[in-house]
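Re: the 293-residue chain
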Amino acid sequence: MTTSGSNQVVAFRRALRRAAGSLERDLPWVTHREPWAVLVSEYMLQQTQVARVLGPWQRFLLAFPTPTSCADVPLSDVLRLWEGLGYHRRAKSLHDAAVMIRDHFAGAVPSEVEQLRSLPGVGEYTANAVASFAYNRPVAVLDTNVGRVLARALANRRLTAVQARALALELLGRSPSAPFNQAMLDLGSQFCAAKPRCATCPLARTCVWHRDGGPDPAIASAAVSRPQSSFLGSTRQLRGVVLRHLREGPQSKKALLAHFDDADAVRGEAALEGLVRDGLVRTSGHRLSLVGD
C-alpha cells in the first residue's frame, strides 16, 4: 500500500486538480450545495443512473424545498413524485429522514458523518457524500466509480474495502473535499468506467495500470458493484406496476391483480404483499392505497 508521501499519490493528486475543470459534468446538484438538495440527490442516485434523476430531483425540490416541507406531507405525496426512479423504499427512507431532521435536528440537515448515518437509508457513502458536498467536511467519497480509479490508477491491484477506504482518504490529503471528491466521481464516470477510455483519459499518464499493464484490477475490487439484475420481468417491475396504479387512487385487490396476466398473477400478489410489508401500501378491507392516502 502506498504511504501519504508516496510519489504516485502526490503525482495523481496534482494531476487530478489540474484536470478537474475539464472533467466537470453539467449536474445541477454539483453547483447547488444546499444540504437538503444534496441529500435528496444522493437518495435518488442510489442504484439509479444520473440521467433518470435530473427531472425528478428538480420536481421534488420544487414541491419540497426544505426537509420540514417534506416531513409535513403524507408518504403518498412523496411516492407520487418518486415516479420513474424505482426502488421506492428509498422514497420512504427519505420521507422518514425528513421527519427525523424536522423533529431531532431542528429542520436542518446534520453536517457530521455520525449524525448523517443515523438517518434512515443513509450508509457510509451517502453520509460522506453529504458531509463533503454540502459542508466540505474532510472525508473521502468512495463508490463504484472511485473504486475503479483507486484500483487502476493508484494500486494496479484489487483492493479490499478497508484498503480502498484508506487509499481514498490518503489521496484526498488536505484538498478541499467537495471539488476533489466530485472530480474523482467525474473521472470514474466518464473515463475510468467499467469499459475504460484510457486513450482519451486526461489522467492516463499518471495511472499505474495504464503504465504497467496487466489484468484489470478494478474487477471484483472493493466498492465496485456487481451488475444489477434485469428489470424486465423482475419483482421490481411488478412492484412498479402496483405503485403506478395506486398513484391514481385506492383500488381493490382484485382490480390491481387484474393488471397482471395469468403468468404474473401469483408474483404480482407477492409484490403487493411486499409493498405492504415495506410500509408503502396499506390495506383497508379489500381496498388498497398508498400509505398516506
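Confidence is low (pLDDT under 50) at residues 1-5.
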